[in-house]
Amino acid sequence: MNKLLFTQKRVFEDLALLLLRFFIGGTFIVYAIKKVQGFDNYIILFSDKLDLPLPLFNLYIVTLLEGLGGLLLILGLFTRFISIPLIITMITAFFLVNLDNGFAASSFGTEVPLAYISILFLLFGFGSGKFSLDNKFLPSK
Fold first, then answer.
1. Under a CB-based contact definition with an 8 Å cutoff, are residues 124 and 80 in contact?
2. Is 1 helix (H, G, I), strand (E, B) or coil?
3. Beta strand residue intervals within 5-135, DSSP E
C-alpha cells in the first residue's frame, strides 16, 4: 500500500487537480445559473446594495465569466488563463460582499471566497493536470 501511494504520486496529484477543477468549475456554473434565474434581483444587488457602476454590464460580465469560466475549468481548457479573471472576481466579491460579515460561511463571510481564491491560485500555479484538454492540446514542454 505504501509503495502504491508513493510510486503513483503524479497520478494522485493529477486526480487532485481534476477534482479541484470539477468542484470549482461546477460551483461557478451553479452561480451563473443562479444569476440568470434571479436576474432582476441581481440587478438590484449590483446597483443598489453594491453600488457598482454600470450594474447591468457588470452583471452580464460576471455571469458570463462564471458560466464560461466554470465550463473551461471542468474541461481543463485554458485553466491558467481563466483562473486570473475568476480570482479577480472573487477578490472583488470578498471586499464588496463578504468582508463585513466576518469569517464564517454561515454568515456569508470571507471563508468561501478565500477558499475559492486558494483553489484558483493552485490551478493557476499547477495548471490543469494530466486529465485535461490543456494537456491534450496545449502540452507543456
1. yes
2. coil
3. none
**Residue 14 near residue 131 (C-beta atoms within 8 A):** yes
pLDDT over 70, % of the chain: 93
34 vs 108: CA distance, rounded Å: 16
Match 483553489 to its residue by C-alpha cell: 119
List b or e across 18-43, with b for residues whose CB sees 16 or more CB atoms inside 10 angstroms: bebbeebbebbbebbeebeeeeeebe
Residue 72, exposed/middle/buried by CB under 10 A (0-12, 13-18, 19+)? buried
Q: Above 60 in pLDDT, residue 141?
A: no
Residues 63-75 pLDDT 10s: 999 999 999 999 9
Is 6 a residue whose pLDDT tops 90? Answer: no
